[in-house]
Design goal:
Layout lengths: L1 H19 L12 H5 L5 H27 L2 E2 L1 H13 L4 H31 L5 H4 L4 H7 L2 H10 L1 H24 L3 E2 L2 E2 L4 H18 L11 H4 L1 H9 L1 H16 L3 E2 L2 H8 L3 H26 L9 H8 L3 H17 L1 H10 L1 H33 L3 H15 L6 H21 L6
Parallel strand pairs: 1-4
Antiparallel strand pairs: 2-3
Helix pairs in contact: 1-4, 1-5, 1-13, 3-4, 3-21, 4-5, 7-14, 7-19, 8-9, 8-10, 8-19, 9-10, 10-15, 10-19, 12-15, 13-16, 13-17, 14-15, 15-16, 15-18, 15-19, 16-17, 19-20, 19-21, 20-21
Length: 429
């Protein structure tokens, strides 16, 4: 029961925050919301834009990955509430309507995903087990993203160096675990190879980024340019704190996850590794989220997404909610200092967009491979053929489906086609 209550509450609050222009989850929408708030874009245009930017990710990315991992990817909820909140005009009554619809949407995601999984289990060809393979390559591939971000921002040579050191760190941890080198009171300590590789890669990225310093004090910089917009976010700190508490609590109960990598680790029961992955992802996105929030006056319902790591590492749901609220409050209060830091280190500020691009590219490749493996497990031979064709035809058609969604959506399509073949007597599992 608590699961449903939390998801309904998250749906209500996030839809209301989007409607009032306090916070939206889609990073691409954040710079557009002020256009409406300041009268340069109609509400209808904003709603259409929100739908165009988020609907495909909900249907093709969030929901399929949630089904595969049996944990709800937060994109499934918060991208949907972005659409609901931004499509409805602002006003006392209409904001209440947005909240009600957001709550119904949260409940619908919870019950709807379970219904879909149950229906899959009733089919002649049960492809849920095969579909779970979608997320397998994601965890291992994710450790590559810091090297890709370094290559995009600081030359390919530095990217290769980062990749090699991260790979070496991973193999040293594998060797250490095998030989039981580390122990506490005689009990062998097992480290996460992917987690350590990720930490090493992020360390290289941060070092390279902080080598770029700004000495120019003559120009009006971010810290002073957007004072009013930062104050607007601080005005709604208490609302954002409630959001942080709800999301941390939901993460603690393993109802939601902030990203596909963490989701797959948590679904395998690897909580510590999942927490490390959630923390690394959050730290990597701080420059991007902070920059867009400072420049637009619009925050995110999950803030820097540290609340997901808080939820995973907290001992219980009450502690998670309290710490989640405190962490997101500190994020908001430190925005001005964050702006000054980003002014001082422009390399760190620029790394935000490169990190996002790197993560996107890694997920595109990993989910395509995972989707192909899943599809081939469901219908051997035909699965590889179908995913390859689906990907290439999607590219030829101008990419109507985002690349990240091709693998998961293709695997579901192969499962449905496999069932049709079984019913027609053309395939025997």
């Amino acid at each position: 029961m608590l699961d449903v209550v939390l998801l309904v509450a998250i749906g209500v609050l996030s839809a209301v925050m989007a409607n009032m222009g306090i916070a939206v989850f889609n990073d691409g929408l954040r710079p557009i919301v002020p256009e409406n708030l300041e009268g340069r874009m109609t509400r209808k245009e904003l709603g259409v834009t929100a739908f165009a930017m988020s609907f495909g990710l909900v249907i093709g990315f969030g929901i399929p990955i949630s089904i595969a991992g049996s944990i709800i990817l937060i994109h499934s909820i918060l991208l949907g509430t972005d659409i609901i909140g931004l499509s409805i005009a602002r006003g006392k009554f209409s904001t209440i309507v947005a909240g009600v619809l957001g709550g119904l949407y949260g409940a619908g995601i919870y019950y709807g995903l379970q219904v879909v999984v149950d229906l899959f289990g009733m089919l002649p060809l049960d492809f849920v087990e095969g579909f779970n393979l979608v997320g397998e390559p994601v965890v291992v591939a994710f450790m590559v993203f810091p090297a890709v971000a370094v290559a995009l921002q600081f030359t390919v040579k530095k990217g290769i160096i980062t990749f090699l050191f991260a790979a070496l760190a991973r193999q040293l941890v594998v060797w250490s675990n095998t030989e039981e080198i580390l122990s506490i009171d005689g009990n062998p300590v097992t480290l996460s190879p992917e987690g350590i590789a990720l930490v090493v890669g992020m360390a290289f990225l941060i070092v390279f980024a902080m080598q770029e310093k700004s000495e120019d004090t003559s120009m009006e910089q971010m810290a002073t340019l957007f004072v009013d917009r930062v104050q607007r976010i601080k005005k709604y700190t208490w609302v954002i704190m409630i959001s942080g508490a709800l999301l941390a609590a939901a993460a603690n109960l393993l109802i939601v996850s902030g990203d596909p990598i963490t989701l797959n680790l948590l679904s395998d029961g690897r909580l510590n590794e999942g927490g490390i992955a959630a923390l690394a992802k959050a730290l990597g996105f701080v420059p991007l989220i902070a920059s867009t929030a400072i420049a637009t006056g619009v925050y995110g319902p999950a803030g820097f997404t540290l609340v997901f790591a808080v939820g995973i590492f907290s001992p219980n749901v009450v502690v998670a909610a309290i710490i989640g609220a405190v962490v997101i409050m500190l994020e908001v209060l430190l925005l001005t200092k964050m702006a000054k830091f980003l002014d001082r280190y422009p390399g760190v500020r620029a790394s935000g967009e490169n990190i996002r691009t790197a993560m996107t590219r890694v997920l595109e490749v990993a989910l395509l491979i995972g989707g192909a493996n899943a599809a081939n497990a469901i219908v051997p031979g035909f699965g590889f053929y179908a995913i390859a064709g689906f990907y290439l035809l999607n590219e030829a058609a101008g990419r109507p489906i985002v690349r990240m969604a091709v693998g998961p959506v293709g695997a579901i399509a192969v499962g449905i086609i496999g069932n049709i073949l079984v019913l027609l007597g053309l395939y025997s599992p």
